[in-house]
Task: inverse folding
């Protein structure tokens, strides 16, 4: 039977009940987001919509069923994910941006040289995925030259789409490189010139204990960093050290169980100083920053060497 137009309030209520029965904790919020998306309005203005059309109701029911029965990520079903200041296109094959990563973006932006300098800052995003880090920085700092490195074809498709979308919106275009972020020869032409290297690499220690939205849908290549979560981070640190200019900044996200280990790896690498651990908004260890030492082992500008805080 073809559904008839229905009041939005009832559609939201029914969708929330179905999602809650499936065990989704944020059922009401997700029901509102789905209905607003299909109706073509913002969630804050959904209350101003009286009813949805029969076609819209069919689409809402399809999305709710996929969310409840298959536990497909809501972001995949809606085709986009919030990424700080931006909304990025996402879907099967790419890691979904998380709010926690925004703190790393803000930290990286805070240490870039002020606009108007003689040389524009050069930023490299290793394991770029959908482009969250690269595109956020390019959006906030249009004077910068941003490079995004991604290896996996499905993720590359989403990255290129988002880069094109943001360029069409007027942001500084990001240079996309199909390459392995752990390749010692990566971006050899930029070696020793980069202002900041940022990365949200695969870092989860191998486990079966993940929500079904994650384990059943997001690509394992973007999630897992080997048994200890450090398999990608170890070689990536060498690449970052080669790319960065003296005084350049590294910021790398990690699992909340590996903050101490990552800071120790950065220190042991030998070419970084002022190694600092940072927490997310929930107080969990989330990313490590460090400054590239110069050839004499000095840390510009503070001079502090090889410490992990």
Result:
């Amino acid at each position: 039977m073809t559904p008839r137009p229905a009041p939005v309030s009832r559609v939201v209520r029914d969708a929330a009940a179905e999602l809650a029965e499936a065990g989704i904790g944020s059922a009401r919020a997700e029901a509102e987001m789905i209905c607003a998306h299909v109706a073509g309005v913002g969630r804050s203005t959904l209350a101003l919509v009286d009813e949805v059309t029969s076609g819209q109701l069919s689409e809402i029911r399809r999305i709710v069923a996929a969310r409840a029965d298959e536990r497909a990520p809501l972001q995949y079903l809606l085709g986009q994910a919030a990424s700080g200041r931006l909304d990025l296109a996402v879907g099967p094959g790419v890691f979904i941006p998380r709010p926690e990563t925004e703190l790393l973006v803000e930290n990286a932006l805070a240490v870039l040289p002020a606009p108007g300098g003689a040389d524009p800052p050069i930023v490299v995003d290793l394991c770029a995925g959908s482009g969250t880090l690269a595109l956020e920085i390019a959006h906030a700092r249009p004077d910068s030259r941003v490079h995004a490195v991604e290896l996996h074809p499905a993720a590359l498709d989403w990255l290129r789409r988002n880069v094109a979308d943001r360029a069409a919106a007027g942001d500084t275009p990001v240079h996309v490189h199909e390459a392995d972020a752990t390749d010692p020869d990566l971006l050899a032409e930029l070696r020793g010139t980069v202002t900041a290297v940022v990365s949200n690499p695969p870092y989860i220690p191998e486990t079966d204990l993940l929500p079904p939205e994650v384990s059943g849908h997001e690509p394992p290549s973007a999630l897992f960093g080997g048994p200890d979560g450090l398999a990608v981070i170890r070689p990536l640190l060498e690449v970052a050290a080669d790319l960065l200019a003296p005084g350049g900044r590294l910021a790398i996200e990690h699992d909340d169980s590996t903050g101490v280990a990552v800071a120790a790896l950065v220190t042991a690498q030998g070419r970084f100083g002022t190694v600092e651990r940072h927490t997310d908004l929930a107080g969990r260890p989330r990313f490590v920053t460090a400054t590239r030492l110069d050839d004499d082992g000095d840390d510009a500008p503070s001079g502090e060497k090889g410490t992990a805080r």
